[in-house]
Amino acid sequence: MSTTLTGAPVSPGRAAGVVVTMPAPVPEPPEATTGPSEADDAVSRLGAASRAVQDRLDALAAQATGTAADVLAVTAAMAADPTLASDAERRVRESGATPERAVWDAANALAAQLEPLGPPLSERARDVRDVRDRIVAELTGVRPPGVPSPGHPFVLVAEDLAPADTATLDPEAVVAIVTSGGGPTSHTAILARALGIPAVVAAKGADDLAEGETVVVDGGAGIVLRDPSDAEVEAARSAVRVEREFDGHGRTADGHRVELLANVADPAAAQAAVAAHAEGVGLFRTEFCFLGRDVEPSVEEQVTAYRGVLAAFGGRKVVVRTLDAGADKPLPFVTADDEPNPALGVRGLRTAVAHPEVLDRQLRAIAEAAEAEQADVWVMAPMVATTDEARAFVAACERHGLTRAGAMIEVPAAALRSRWVFEHATFGSIGTNDLTQYAMAADRMLGDLAALSTSWQPAVLELVRATCEGAQAHGRPVGVCGEAAADAVLAPVLVGLGVRSLSMTPRALADVAAVLAEVTFVRCRELAQVVLAQPDADAARSAVRRELADVLHPLGL
Ligand code: PEP
Ligand code: MG
């Protein structure tokens, strides 16, 4: 008999596969020593472990594709570097350290030397620590760190995934993701949607799933089936999603324009967005170019990264968001790691108070990249809370000749005071992920609060309405770039509330466009009134699904 776990549905699609769990972090080895007579044996174990790690990394890099292959190739090169091995050997022979302790200390010493050298060398510190953990894991018999590579397709089960882990996620191998933590707007959820991997987050009981058991995951329904029958496995394996194409021109049934844009984090994602016919980029998350970096990237390096995205879009619109560091996306060169409550801490635009020069250099880099490319570059700041912050940011952009300067509206204070914010900001983009987190006082990373963490909450939609009203008073356009924009059922509601563009993972464009194309603008406005009259999120979602049944059913949504 199969049993069912339920969680938040965050990335549609059905898949069946065996469970592979994320390993726990490799523990620091104790400061034990060995006797002098054991030194030769310790050195030969050390050599064997580092050769095994190199071979495995080489094999993994050869199998992987895209970013995963690049990351693994760099780690493999680091594992083959003799500096680490010879210092570890010296520590075994001179201080009698155990091989695992010797490699731990040697790696930490090497990382500490690399860190002050600036990029690209300082970046290698992270790779050194990764190699350290892999060699220690080999020596002590624990599982190596990072996303496992069992050599066959699998369902990845984790408490949650760190942004750095997700860089090595291979969509060919990971058929589905199930987490016990994380909310519908956590970065795990965003990434799964972007990669088109079916995913269920905040799944109660996911921590009990056993390595190697077969499960069926339905990412659209938020269900994980344990002990599925052969027929259920077969049905999931042969499930095919209806493939639609977006024609590159978003509009309602009566021709009201709604720009449909893409969220991207790097040049590869920009290419995917172009392939999906996105009209432009509504959110370029620049911090993702530099995650895991200990040192601020140089202006030249930033220009190169930004040009990679701008170049993909020719003369079209690209909204570049300045660094949104902090909370679940820490960047050590601007964020503290000891805040008691990081989501309410110094994050986003607030980091510019202590580090105005970092924002200034980023705006310089964006201006240089814009100058060198054809794209129509708009710039916006994350986490704007007050009118004064909006005014200061717009002024900083103007000093760099960036005249299209806007504000993300993701703090309820800015939504409620949008009439004042838009005196300065020339456009707005609503970050519904954080707006929901702050409106509902529900940490977006916490699976237990998934029911609160949805943009269907009428309170969140009231804030969207307030934002649009304030912007209309100054004729400023407002878009949505949070995950709400990728919800094809919510899209007409957002348009009815006054939103003029929707920015989403490229995979969602076709479904959102298909729904909008079937609904008139007047109907969108009626749907907006319907949701605002509902008592809670479930009632709002059900009411719209009922109203739109004639549109959603034929589209299979
Ligand atoms: C948001 O908060 O909705 C948003 C788009 O920003 P991020 O998800 O990167 O915090
Ligand atoms: Mg945000």
Automatic annotation (TrEMBL):
Domain Phosphotransferase system enzyme I N-terminal: start-end pairs: 6-121
Keyword annotations of the record: Cytoplasm, Kinase, Magnesium, Metal-binding, Phosphotransferase system, Sugar transport, Transferase, Transport
Q: Which reactions is this enzyme annotated as catalysing?
A: L-histidyl-[protein] + phosphoenolpyruvate = N(pros)-phospho-L-histidyl-[protein] + pyruvate
- Family note: Belongs to the PEP-utilizing enzyme family.
Q: Any idea where the PEP-utilising enzyme C-terminal domain is?
A: 250-519
The free-text function statement in the UniProt record for this protein reads:
General (non sugar-specific) component of the phosphoenolpyruvate-dependent sugar phosphotransferase system (sugar PTS). This major carbohydrate active-transport system catalyzes the phosphorylation of incoming sugar substrates concomitantly with their translocation across the cell membrane. Enzyme I transfers the phosphoryl group from phosphoenolpyruvate (PEP) to the phosphoryl carrier protein (HPr).
Its chief place of residence is cytoplasm
Under InterPro entries, the record lists: PEP-util_enz_mobile_dom, PEP-utilizing_PTS_enzyme, PEP_util_AS, PEP_util_C, Phosphohistidine_dom_sf, PTS_EI, PTS_EI-like, PTS_EIN
GO MF annotations, alphabetized: phosphoenolpyruvate-protein phosphotransferase activity
What gene name is given for the protein in this entry?
A: ptsP
Q: What is this protein called?
A: Phosphoenolpyruvate-protein phosphotransferase
Question: Pfam families of this UniProt entry?
Answer: PEP-utilisers_N (PF05524), PEP-utilizers (PF00391), PEP-utilizers_C (PF02896)
- Which cofactors does it use? Mg(2+)
